[in-house]
Amino acid sequence: MSANGTSNGTSNGTNGHSNGTSNGAESHAADETPFLNTQPGPDHNWKVSLENKVIAITGANRGIGLGIAEVCLANEASVIYSLDLFEPGEEFQKIKDANPKRLHYLNCDVTSEESIEKAISTIVTNHGAIHGFVANAGMTKHQPALEFSRAQLDQLFNLNVYGAYFCATTVAKKFIELGIKGSIVFTASMTSYRPNRAAPSAPYGATKGAVRNMTHTLGMEWAHHGIRVNSISPGFVKTAMTYFVDQAPDWKLKMQYYGGMPRLADPKELGGAYVYLLSDAASYTTGIDIPVAGIVGAW
After folding, report:
1. Mean residue pLDDT across the chain
2. 276 tagged catalytic
3. pLDDT tens string 49-85
4. CATH fold label, 47-292
5. Which of 25, 29, 114, 289 is the most buried (most CB within 10 A)?
C-alpha cells in the first residue's frame, strides 16, 4: 500500500500542474465531444427493474456488496460481477448456484487502475456492454483519532477514496466509449454526515465524506454524457466488520438515545436503493446521496 501512496502522490502533483497549464486547449477540445441525448426515448423502461443490465459491484464477495448483488439478481439483473481481491466463500457460492450463469467473480485490486481496467474490459468482452457499477469496496478502522498511524491512514484512503475514484473514472471512460447512459453508485456512510458515537473513527468518516463529495461533483461533470452518479449512506449494517457494534455492554442504552430502529440492518435491506439508482427509472436522478439508516444512522 505504501508504494501506491507514493506513486499516487507523485502522479497527482504532475497532473495538477499539466491541467493548470493546458486548460484552454482541453476546454476547446471538450467542446467538440458529442454528448448523449439524455432524454428518455419511447422505449424507455419505466419499471424499477435491472432487466438486461450488466452490473459490476466491488467487494461483493461478502457483506454489503453481496447483499446488493443478491437484491439486484432478485430484480432481474442479467449479469452481476463481483470485483474483489479475495476468493469468494461459501455464502457467495450458494447465491451463485441459485442463479446459474448470472453471478460471477473477477479478481480485482481497486487501488490499481490497471486492475480495474482489466476487469471492466473482461466484462465488456464477455457481454458486449456494462450498464451499472457499484463502487462498494471499503474498510474501516475504529479507534481514537490520536492512535492512528500514517500507515493506517494511507490504507484507509487508498481503498475508500482512491479506489472509489479510480473505479468511477475508469468505468465512466468505458460508458463514454460505448455510448452507454450508465449509472455509478458509491457506498458512502452516515458517518459522512455526523460522528458515529457507537464506533468512532475520524479517518473513516473523512474517507466517506470524500466519497459523498465525489458523488455530487462527478454527477455534475458527467451528466451531459448521460452518466448518473449517486451514493448510498448506510447506517449500522451487520457485517463481518461490524459484528462487535451491538455486542457492546452499553448498546441498548445507546439505542435509547439514537431512536429509530434499535438494530443493525441486514445488508439486503440496502439493496432496494441501489436497484432504483441503477435502474432506468432513475433517469433524472443524479448527484445525490440516499441515507438508508433506519433513522438510527450515526446520530
Report:
1. 85
2. no
3. 999 999 999 999 999 999 999 999 999 999 999 999 9
4. Rossmann fold (3.40.50)
5. 289
Q: List the alpha helices (DSSP H) in the chain.
A: 2-31, 63-74, 90-98, 113-127, 150-157, 164-178, 202-222, 251-258, 271-278
CA pair distance 273, 277, nearest whole angstrom: 6
From residue 171, alpha-carbon distances to 30, 77, 275 in Å are 19, 18, 18
**Hey, what amino acid is at 177?**
E
Per-residue confidence (pLDDT) for residue 6, from 0 to 100: 36
The burial of 112, by beta-carbon neighbours within 10 Å (0-12 exposed, 13-18 middle, 19 or more buried), is given as: middle
Buried b (16+ CB within 10 A) or exposed e, 266-287: ebbbbbebbbbbbbbbbbeebb
Please tell me whether residue 228 adopts helix, strand or coil conformation: strand
Catalytic entry in 81, 105, 193, 204 = 204
- Using DSSP's 3-state secondary structure scheme, residue 262 falls into coil
d(C-alpha 109, C-alpha 294), whole Å: 32
Catalytic site includes residue 81: no
Residue holding cell 463529495? 213
243 catalytic? Reply is no
Predicted TM-score (pTM) of the model is 0.82
